[in-house]
Amino acid sequence: MTTREVAALIRKTPHAVRQMRHRGGGPPGFRLGRNTLYRRTAVLKWLEGREQADPLTSRAQGWG
């Protein structure tokens, strides 16, 4: 996936995705020439991890 595709998926700007990656908080990506690419499976796994880390998620699902 491109940075723009990841941004659309998580409803952020491409700049925000680049900043998250630079700061170590975004989905793992890799450089291919001038482009940063993201494996779809890695992005989905990153999203799942963010969901699991959210304390409101467990409360909303009756886990907490």
Keywords:
elongated, two-stranded antiparallel ribbon, 2 strands, 64 residues, 9% strand, mainly alpha
Secondary-structure-derived class: mainly alpha
Low-confidence stretches: none
- Give the overall form: elongated
Radius of gyration: 13 Å
Give the strand content: 5-15%
Biggest sheet descriptor:
2 strands, antiparallel
Number of continuous helical runs = 4
The strand count comes to 2
Give average pLDDT, whole number: 91
The H/E string reads: HHEEHH
Report how far the terminal alpha carbons are from each other: 34 Å
Structure description:
Helix content is 59%, strand content 9%. The protein has 64 residues and is mainly alpha-helical. The chain contains 4 helices and 2 strands. The mean pLDDT is 91. Strands 1-2 form a two-stranded antiparallel sheet. The radius of gyration is 13 Å and the shape is elongated.
